[in-house]
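Action item from last meeting closed. Structure (291 res):
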């Protein structure tokens, strides 16, 4: 397409410089030190020829915006694991780690479709009945069939997406896969997770199922349905990593000069600037659009 015409990637140590666009030129600088998520997308026809697109998402902070930038287009799936490993070594997920979503997720989608159809059909049926009393038209009668067919078409993609939808939990990452016409795989390192949020509708509790969203500073990975024990294990791992970071930060503070509680700085470093230096994260990346 015109958006990704003239696509080029310049790889430098620790940074990707991406440029694409025909009418509007887009340029990004994405630093791997700010990497927050790896996203692989493949449309239906791309999967038939063994191709996919690889993007990386970087974190944003201090008023700057993180980005989701493509680093490879029409990438051969045979070299995808090696390419992911070169970008984010922990983000490579072995195929045997993938688990399907619980079977009840499909029934949940069917129930949502039925509820949506019923809610939409009530005003439609009332309108058709009113029109019928006044003569009406064949089109108004056809609405009784158009509405359920339309809602079914909307949910068809989600239903087909459950065929290969799944999740994976690695030593240092979590991953989610969903979609049929466009299959999306999102991977996030545990070190980059800032928030892990569970939600559990009433009908899911008796079956031990939850929905889980893990969020970084900019991006997130959603798990539409997980067994409660899997979700709890992910949350506990995230908490362990958070405690480890806090302990390391506290230890570095305690080891400051003279035990003053301040982190150690180089002798030539101006002390009046210490308060303006981020303690953990460097500045984020940003994208620019040049018309």
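Sequence:
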């Amino acid at each position: 397409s015109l958006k990704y015409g003239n696509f080029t990637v310049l790889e430098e140590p620790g940074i990707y410089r991406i440029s694409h666009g025909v009418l509007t030129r887009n340029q990004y600088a994405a630093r791997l030190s700010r990497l927050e998520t790896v996203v692989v997308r493949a449309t239906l026809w791309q999967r038939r020829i063994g191709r996919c697109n690889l993007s990386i998402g970087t974190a944003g902070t201090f008023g700057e915006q993180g980005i989701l930038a493509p680093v490879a287009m029409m990438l051969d799936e045979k070299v995808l694991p090696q390419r992911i490993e070169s970008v984010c070594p922990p983000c490579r997920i072995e195929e045997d780690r993938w688990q399907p979503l619980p079977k009840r997720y499909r029934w949940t989608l069917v129930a949502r479709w039925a509820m949506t159809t019923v809610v939409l059909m009530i005003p439609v049926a009332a309108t058709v009945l009113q029109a019928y009393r006044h003569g009406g038209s064949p089109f108004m009668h056809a609405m009784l069939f158009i509405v359920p067919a339309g809602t079914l078409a909307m949910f068809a993609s989600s239903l087909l997406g459950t065929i290969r939808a799944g999740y994976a939990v690695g030593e240092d990452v979590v991953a989610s896969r969903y979609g049929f016409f466009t299959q999306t795989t999102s991977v996030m390192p545990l070190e980059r997770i800032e928030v892990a949020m569970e939600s559990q509708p009433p009908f899911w509790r008796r079956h031990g199922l939850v929905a889980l969203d893990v969020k970084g500073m900019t991006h997130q990975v959603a798990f539409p349905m997980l067994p409660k024990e899997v979700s709890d294990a992910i949350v506990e791992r995230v908490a362990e990593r958070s405690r480890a970071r806090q302990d390391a930060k506290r230890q570095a503070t305690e080891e400051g000069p003279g035990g003053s509680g301040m982190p150690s700085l180089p002798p030539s470093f101006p002390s009046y600037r210490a308060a303006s230096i981020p303690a953990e994260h460097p500045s984020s990346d940003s994208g620019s659009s040049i018309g």
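Note appended to the action item: Confidence is low (pLDDT under 50) at residues 264-291.
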